[in-house]
Fold:
Amino acid sequence: MNSVSSFEFPVSGTSENSTARVYSKHETRNSKLHRRDALWQVEKAVRRSGPLLEEFPEPDSSSPLEVMTHEERLVADFHGTGLTVGPHPMAYRRAEMKAMGIHPASELKSIPNGRRLRIGGCVIARQRPGTAKGFVFLSLEDETGIANAIVTPDLLEKNRILLVAERFLMVEGILQNQDNVISVKAERVLPLSVTQAETSSHDFH
Structure:
């Protein structure tokens, strides 16, 4: 089914967010429709023609809108729901990450303890326990999993704004693998340009 005109909506007024959820689900179920085409179809279904035009049938047709880019999809997904049903943002940048020497999270378990390396990803948590003597613990998510980094008080003081504000980070440091508890003790941190999508993190809880 390429049309959603047969859908029955329980209320006459449909919010923008509700409409977005409907077209996103419809797009997921129907690979023939791209995101904007699905939205076009849903808008036609929920926004009925006025009294002057309601007697004239409107043929189902694809929208004149262009297919969304990966970046546009990410921005729309995170703005609407706080997550994406498509690939992780880091997946689109994996070739660039590899060129920068950044390891995916899934590789860390196979790298020897004490090796200097780079990890990178979306910051999903920043923790600074009161008993940690000023150390900050970062959780960086990529398309393969989560990598943990330990930031010393000195490094935090030198890069406070970067560590607190940036959504995506590259961390360079020493791999620590103690009884299969894996982390990277940070020696250097840099911002990563991945996406403009409004990702979020749980900070200092």
